[in-house]
Structures are given as C-alpha cells and as structure tokens.
From TrEMBL:
Coiled coil: none annotated. It comes from the Bacteria. InterPro entries: Aminoglycoside_PTrfase, Kinase-like_dom_sf. Residues 30-250 form the Aminoglycoside phosphotransferase domain. Gene3D superfamilies: 3.90.1200.10, Phosphorylase Kinase, domain 1 (3.30.200.20). This is Aminoglycoside phosphotransferase.
Amino acid sequence: MIAAWAARHWPGGPVARPEATAMAPDGSTRFFVRLRAAGRQLVAMHGPDNPAEARAWLHLAGVLAAGGLPAPKVWAAEERAGLFLMDDLGQADLHGAALALAGDADALAKLYEPVLAMLARLQAVGAAGLDVSYCFDGAELSPEFLLRREAGYFMEWFVEAACGLRERPAGLAEELALVAERAGRAEPRGLVHRDFQSRNIVLGPCGPGLVDFQGARLGPAQYDLASLLHDPYVDLPWPLRRRLLGRYLDLRRDVGPFDAEAFVEGWPFVCLSRLMQALGAYGFLCGRRKKPFFAAHGRPALNSLRRLLAEPPLAMLPALGQLARRLPDDPGPLLAALAGEDSR
C-alpha cells in the first residue's frame, strides 16, 4: 500500500510501482521503506497509529529545513493517514561508521566533527519558527517532565521491571527530584531533538542528516550533546567524550551568543537524566514491545551512569550511587528475559 501511494505522488508525476526495500524501524512502531523509481531514491514513512506524532514530524521537518538544517525534504504528505514521502538522506549512519573506527580516537574525532557542527547550529537557530502547539509529547523538557518521564521511567522499567529491585535507598526520591530540577532548569535553552544518538544521524553524500525528530521540543541545550557523547550504541572512550565536549563548546561559540559556563554547570545533571531515560527505554522496549535487540546496550549505559555518579558533582548523591551499585553489572540477560528471549 505504501509503495503504491508513493508511486502516485512521485516527484515529477506518477511512476510505475517503485522498487521497495523495507527499513529497520528500531524502537518505533512506524514503518519505513526505501523506494527507487525514475532515477530517484526516496523514503516513505507510514505511522497511522499516532496522528499527533505525524503532525509534529511534518511541522518539525519544515522548522529544521527553514533553519538550514539537514532534515529530509518532504515531497508528499497525507497527515491524517500518517503517510510521508521524503528525500533519502543516505543509507549509512553514524553508529556504523563509529563502530568501524573503534579504538582510533583521532579518526573518531574527525568523524564526529561535522555532527558537532550540525548540533551547534541546531542549538543556535533550531527553535526559530517552532510552534510548540505541535509538540505532541510536551512543549518542554521541564523538571516535572524529567522527573516523571526520565527518572520515573528508569525506576519503573529498568530498576523494577528488568532488574527486580523494589527496595529504594533512603533519600532516593529527593535525589531524583533534585536531578530533575537541576537538569530541567539548566541553561542555556534551545530546541532539543531528544534522541540525538548515532542511529538517528544519517551519513550521506552531503554530510550528516537528521531523522526521527518528531519528539523535538524546547529544553536544556546540553540534552542532545549528552545523547550523542553518552551514547550506549557506540560507548565512546571517556577521554574522547571530554575532548568532543570541548570541541562542541568551541563550535557553539562560533555560531552565536552562548553561555558556556552555564552549559558546563548543568552538563552532569542533564547527562544523568538522559542515561536514566535510555535505561528506562531499554526496559520498556524489551518488556512492552518485546524487542531484545536493545538488551545488549544496557551494560554500557549503566557503566556510564555509574561513572557519572562516582565523580563530582554527582558523587553528592549517595542514594542514587547506592542504587547504581546494587544493579547487576550486566543487565543484558535480564533485559533479554524481559523481552522473552533466552540470552544463554
């Protein structure tokens, strides 16, 4: 059905049924297909289950394009049906490229350079033209949102559902609220993609491109960089993470006014919140959506969370540190079991 719809709306006029190749959707319930016809390659997306999400995606595609950011051009859209036909930004992604260069810090730094530059521009100009009424999952990453949907998500789906820990250290609720408060009020603010990790950054002939941006909203500018540098799919070496953080700060200063001191002050709290979100997501995707692929990424995410909690200023959170130490060193088998898969 999706290929036939795309054929009727092909740029330049209808074409015979295009050659179609299904694309892996990762954690999404949407369906993607790569199409080839009349010397052109495009991508069609079908997401009929969430009209508000489809509406947000279309609005944000326009906002990003208007800001000179590399979002796919939309050739045809039927918003109510959740059908979109767009440019294909490329078949490679940052995830695959980074894994191929594992162990070579200089090569990885070079690979990440244009991605950091793209992110700096996203934070500088991305919010211009944004109408937050289109943000289907909330207009802003506020303290209340982060406490409920990141810290709460982590506790419900990772700590309890996956790891089976129900006893909570004294003071944990207060520390989770503090992290959400510090992360949710961190400055400076900007447009947050909210899933700016290696599998959502396409590498094409024209450089890196943005996909899966339908959840974007306003929030702390640190959030997307935290998603990129503390990305469990890649698990960059810590010295390289620090190096790329410094490089991002330089690039961000180059594209407009920027309070680097405020950014650095909020950085560890936003990083911790993002890692809790990732671990909660792995529990949800394994437990609710039965996708065992995500189980293997629990260990690097937990290792990063523990390391953050062992260093200032987050070492001042003893209850969270105690909880992290109680969690299994490798939660992968528990996550796989949650998905109904035997990990042996």
